[in-house]
Design a protein that fits this description.
CATH topology of chain A: Formate dehydrogenase/DMSO reductase fold
Shape of chain A: globular
CATH class of chain B: Alpha Beta
CATH topology of chain B: Alpha-Beta Plaits
Strand content of chain B: 5-15%
Number of helices of chain A: 16
Helix content of chain A: 55-70%
Oligomer: heterodimer
Strand order of the largest sheet of chain B: 8-1-9
Largest sheet of chain A: none
Largest sheet of chain B: 3 strands, mixed
Structural class of chain A: mainly alpha
Number of domains of chain B: 1
Largest interface: A-B, 62 and 56 residues
Helix content of chain B: 25-40%
CATH architecture of chain A: Up-down Bundle
Number of domains of chain A: 1
Number of strands of chain B: 9
Distance between the termini of chain B: 68 Å
Order of helices and strands of chain B: HEHEEHEEHEEHHEHEH
CATH superfamily of chain A: Formate dehydrogenase/DMSO reductase domain
Structural class of chain B: alpha+beta
Strand content of chain A: under 5%
CATH class of chain A: Mainly Alpha
Number of helices of chain B: 8
């Protein structure tokens, strides 16, 4: 870079730099790769329909698009998008805990993609909450302090969502600085990471459990097999393996889709990472299952088992907790990656079942007319997921998420423990073979 | 005076001062008492004058006056804050007026993160349009399923009985109470109403169930009911908590500041403990 020799040329330099930056941003906004792909066509169609439906929703009210009723004030936009979506996004706080607090450096290469996933999940799925709010323009009321409803669990959840999004953004921000080539800012942002991680884990502990605590006052409306005063703890513990299962599931996809971005070294590392995550999943799932059992026995709920809701409870707890945890254990022992992925998918289904049971299915199980989502609610949910994937892909293809950061941004000691990967014997040959 | 005596005297004076302070504090519990309504379902004739008066007072369309409405059990709606249901019982037809119960410690108000739903000092639970963000957590939390939502509006309101809060401010009684031709609904201080209910039961023990619904349900409500037949048979839930509903999430909320202060310290310590020496 040329040194400016007087003030005039300094100004000119700033302008030319700004122009260069503007051109860079414009060029980055353009899509990369082929435009007409099956996914792109699908995404455009889904997003277009979603936009139309959202227009109807905001001009004609919730009844025009949803099947919500006086008996069922919360549908899948809350039960799935927010409550299940946030559990799935739990991977970010678990992985940052493992890497920055326990300093398990092995997992370092998945931090960025996991944090990005978590951040986008919060932005989109918790953001979808705005579609559900009857008066979304008042959403700032609990924030700006003209009326703090501090006795409300919802107040806590709302604040934590907002603060956690900021914390995750800070955790992720070094990648943005690297993308834009802002070296000094990158250094500053990197220094904030540990603080953001600690803050983020604390917030996650509270709002993951808080989403369960929302249902504490609905005691007379939730089937006793799903209601207990331990809902917050159950929600928190299950968010650990829900998040990690999502990391495993998502990783198996992104390693295929973004193959060109991932260095062979990381490919080899990934197997170890997946097995490690599966081990943590198995451990927390055993704890979760034990807690479930404890609540069940303590609540003297045997009498409910031989009823339709009882069978449904067994489907959830045996079919989608006990079986996947066994699969995880087996798969870890035999280092079977395919089996780990199957277990992860079963676990995710189990989390969907659990969250939907508490919020919708076992909620007013006695109602004559039970809520079932309309196609428009499902469509908008699909639109939200699609939008998230589109943005995720845009970011991954531009910023150093899966690929290595630029040379100049190699992490300093304070912020990120360096990945020290040593190839085992034989693996070097394997690597060479991949590179052929 | 030696030192020991001095200390003793000082202590005595201190205790005396303290004693009087406490006594003063005890003498001033001049809190406002909650008002309420006592509904005597044994006396109600099902004329629905209360329904009509309610709709008129709050600017809702006039309810269908025909007795056909009794064919189905109704709940309050976005257009009717108060409705009357008819039940066939062993003691003949029984009519039950239903509306918001105005709990002493309402689940809806403690659920509200913007204080749009508010328990007033006088007792009525009211909803404030400019605060509400429409999360419907109040509806989820209310054990009586009272708040109703205008799903068909782009600018929806929560609709529920306000115990004629505006009329009370003007010194009037609720519209439904005023309209009742047989004094089946009586307005007063909640404590007086409980006494009246007890007296009524004691006077005609064979004509009443010996229970005032709402005295203990959900931790106590401002609307309370007398009945000639068990409450379970006339549309009331009898499986509700007798402590207030906000109690159910209180423990969780108490744990929040503890986690919020201890967690970061613990995590920071752990992070330092695992720091590698050569880093």
């Amino acid at each position: 870079m040329t040194q400016p020799n007087n003030n005039g040329s300094k100004g000119a330099l700033v302008i030319s730099e700004a122009r260069r930056f503007g051109r860079f941003l414009l060029s980055e906004l353009k899509p990369k790769g082929k435009l007409v792909t099956p996914f792109n066509v699908f995404a455009v169609v889904v997003l277009a329909i979603t936009a139309v439906l959202l227009f109807i929703r905001f001009t004609q009210g919730l009844a025009a698009t949803t099947n919500l009723s006086q008996d069922f004030p919360w549908g899948i936009w809350i039960g799935f998008d927010v409550i299940t979506g946030v559990a799935f996004a739990g991977g970010a706080y678990v992985v940052t805990f493992m890497v920055y607090i326990l300093r398990l450096e092995k997992y370092h290469s998945i931090v960025r993609i996991t944090v990005l996933n978590g951040f986008l999940a919060y932005v989109f799925y918790a953001g979808a909450l705005l579609f559900d709010l009857g008066r979304p323009w008042n959403v700032i009321n609990p924030i700006i302090g003209n009326s703090f409803g501090v006795s409300s669990v919802m107040f806590l959840v709302a604040w934590h969502f907002m603060l956690y999004m900021i914390a995750e953004f800070i955790e992720f921000s070094p990648a943005i600085a690297e993308w834009l080539g802002w070296r000094r800012i990158r250094k500053f942002l990197g220094g904030l990471t540990l603080g953001a991680v600690i803050f983020g884990i604390t917030l996650s502990t509270l709002h993951q459990s808080g989403l369960g605590a929302l249902f504490l006052m609905a005691k007379s409306k939730i089937h006793p097999l799903w209601y207990s005063e331990f809902i917050p703890i159950l929600f928190f513990v299950s968010s650990i393996f829900a998040g990690l299962s999502m990391v495993i599931f998502e990783g198996s996809i992104s390693h295929r889709v973004f193959k060109h971005q991932i260095s062979p070294k990381h490919h080899l590392e990934h197997e170890e990472i997946v097995i490690g995550l599966a081990r943590v999943c198995a451990g927390t799932m055993y704890i979760y299952f034990f807690l479930k059992l404890l609540v069940f026995i303590h609540g003297q709920q045997w009498s409910y088992i031989n009823t339709p809701m009882g069978y449904w409870f067994l489907v959830e707890v045996v079919g989608f907790v006990l079986i996947p945890v066994r699969l995880f254990t087996q798969a870890v022992r035999f280092r079977n990656l395919a089996l780990i992925r199957i277990a992860a998918v079963l676990t995710l289904v189990g989390i969907i079942l659990n969250r939907l049971n508490v919020s919708i299915i076992a909620f007013k199980w006695y109602a004559v007319e039970h809520y079932f989502p309309s196609w428009m609610e499902l469509m908008i949910t699909l639109g939200v997921i699609t939008a998230e994937i589109v943005v995720l892909r845009w970011v991954v293809e531009r910023m150093p998420i899966l690929r290595n950061p630029p040379e100049w941004a190699q992490p300093t000691t304070e912020e990120i423990p360096k990945t020290r990967f040593v190839m085992k014997e034989g693996e070097e040959k394997q690597w060479a073979a991949i590179n052929m | 005076m030696d030192r020991r005596n001095f200390v003793k005297t000082l202590g005595g004076i201190g205790a005396g001062v303290l004693g009087t302070e406490l006594a003063v504090a005890q003498e001033q519990p001049e809190q406002k008492e909650f008002v309420g309504v006592l509904v005597d379902t044994a006396r109600c004739i099902g004329c629905r004058s209360c329904e009509m008066a309610c709709a008129e007072t709050h600017g809702f369309p006039e309810p269908d006056a025909s007795t056909d409405v009794y064919e189905k059990e109704r709940a309050p709606s976005t257009l009717q804050w108060s409705i009357v249901n008819r039940y066939e019982t062993e003691k003949g037809e029984t009519f039950v007026k239903r509306q918001c119960m105005h709990c002493n410690q309402p689940a809806c108000a403690s659920a509200c993160l913007t204080k749009a739903m508010l328990k007033t000092e006088e007792g009525p639970v009211i909803w404030r349009e400019d605060k509400c963000m429409g999360c419907r957590f109040c509806m989820l939390s209310c054990p009586f399923d009272i708040p109703k939502y205008e799903y068909d509006s782009w600018k929806p309101k929560v609709q529920k009985c306000s115990l004629c809060w505006e009329r009370l401010e003007e010194g009037k009684v609720p519209a439904c109470v005023e309209a009742c031709p047989v004094e089946a609904i009586r307005f007063g201080k909640r404590r007086d109403l409980i006494e009246m209910g007890r007296v009524q039961i004691a006077k005609e023990p064979e004509n009443y169930v010996h229970h005032i619904y709402g005295e203990a349900e959900a931790g106590g409500t401002s609307y309370m009911y007398l009945a000639a037949v068990p409450f379970g048979g006339i549309g009331f839930r009898t499986d509700l908590e007798t402590t207030s509903y906000p109690e159910l999430s209180k423990d969780y909320l108490y744990a929040v500041p503890i986690v919020l202060t201890l967690w970061p310290a613990f995590l920071l310590a752990l992070s330092n403990a695992t720091r590698k020496e050569n880093d």
